[in-house]
Amino acid sequence: MGTKTAVVTGATSGLGQAAALALGAAGWRVLVVGRDAGRGAEVAKQAGNGSEFVKADLFSLADVRRLAGVLAEKAPALDLLVNNAGGVFSKGPATVDGLEQTFALNVAAPFTLTEGLLGALEAGKGRVVNVVTGIQNGFSTKLEQVVGPKATGGMFAYVRNKAVLLTLTRAQQQRHGARGITFVALHPGIIPTTRFGQSMTGFNPFTTIGPFFSKLFGIGVTEAVAASRYVKVGTEAVEGGGYYYEGVLRPAPKQALDQSFVDSVWSLVATEVQAGKQAA
Ligand SMILES: NC(=O)c1ccc[n+]([C@@H]2O[C@H](COP(=O)([O-])OP(=O)(O)OC[C@H]3O[C@@H](n4cnc5c(N)ncnc54)[C@H](OP(=O)(O)O)[C@@H]3O)[C@@H](O)[C@H]2O)c1
After folding, report:
1. Is the pLDDT of residue 119 over 80?
2. Which atom of ligand 1 is least distant from the CA of 15?
3. 203: buried, middle or exposed (CB in 10 Å: 19+, 13-18, 0-12)?
4. Ligand 1: which residue has its CA nearest to atom 7?
5. Would you place residue 11 in the very low, low, confident or very high pLDDT band (cuts 50, 70, 90)?
6. Predicted pLDDT of residue 275
7. In whole numbers, what is the pLDDT of the chain averaged over residues?
8. What ranges do the domains of the chain cover?
9. Residue nearest to atom 41 of ligand 1 (CA)
10. Does 105 sit in the ligand 1 pocket, CB within 6 Å?
């Protein structure tokens, strides 16, 4: 069997970089997606196996669509797409597509990139890993707070948008699974050493009390441990898609199992991305 190819977004730093290097060490060719050409080229070089850096700004849906075209040319039969890039943002200006930033990066970009790569993923009988968080488990997300005038920035927006991405993963499996593509959501664990949260202004629980409590209760893991989870989840056989919590397959949280919520999430995301396309 030839070398397998993975696309990893947000692979110029943090968990994406760690995952790209772990995949490279496991023999994968990695298409390293990010904004910084210098850091990206270095990660690709270290990953080896003919890995390459591909530049894109995931805040722009036009750029995400262009990126999908470039990646499909480089990997017409794609084995793995890791939608890792994500983050938490204070309420700020909308993106060029008129989207709230948290929604744009954590939901609209992975949705659009995946749709643009469906042909390549089908040809490779590939896997899509959407990186989420476990914080939302036990909470209920109101979709009117995700987009539109009630959408906030900050920690709650982050948690809601990751709940939407987790639910979207189930919708994607339902719609595209018959093409031989599997869709999984991964909560990688709590990893206090990345730059996560630094793009927020004002009081920031992720960079202040978060690391303190994670140390106090011993719940954090290293980037290397998280990276091994990305590799496992990207390669382990899973029938009909799934949700991995720290590398262990679990039932999805209750709300993500509610079919009417799954359908609402799909139509909300598809509608917003379509509206963004018109705004652009
Ligand atoms: N750390 C944790 O404890 C934790 C826990 C659960 C889930 N997660 C999730 O894990 C993923 C990785 O997080 P991390 O901890 O590694 O955070 P991070 O260090 O902040 O990394 C985020 C990555 O996303 C990229 N990115 C941000 N905006 C982008 C844009 N507009 N276009 C292209 N790339 C962009 C960043 O690129 P630059 O290098 O250019 O900034 C960076 O590589 C995220 O989805 C996060 O929500 C993290």
Report:
1. yes
2. 16
3. exposed
4. 133
5. very high
6. 82
7. 92
8. 5-279
9. 13
10. yes
- In a 10 Å sphere around its CB, with 0-12 CB exposed, 13-18 middle and 19+ buried, how is residue 158 labelled? buried
Q: Convert 214-249 to b/e letters by CB count within 10 Å (16 or more is b).
A: beeeeebbebeebbbbbbebbbeebeebbbbbbbee
- Residue tagged active-site, from 158, 243, 244, 245: 158
What does residue 147 show for φ and ψ, rounded to 5 degrees?
-130, 165
With the most atoms of ligand 1 within 8 angstroms of its CB, the residue from 35, 212, 215, 233 to mutate is: 35
Does the annotation count 245 as an active-site position? no
| pLDDT tens for each residue of 214-269 | 666 667 899 999 999 999 999 887 888 999 999 999 999 999 999 999 999 999 99
**CATH level 3 topology of 5-279:** Rossmann fold (3.40.50)
- Smallest Cα–Cα separation from 228: which of 244, 247, 250, 241? 247
In single-letter form, the type of residue at position 179 comes to R
State if pTM tops 0.70: yes
Q: Is the CB of 42 under 6 A from ligand 1?
A: no
Q: In whole angstroms, what is the distance from residue 36 CA to residue 171 CA?
A: 32
Determine how β-strand 80-83 pairs with β-strand 127-131.
parallel
Q: Is the CB of 194 under 6 A from ligand 1?
A: yes
Is the Cα torsion angle 175, 178, 179, 182 positive or negative in sign?
positive
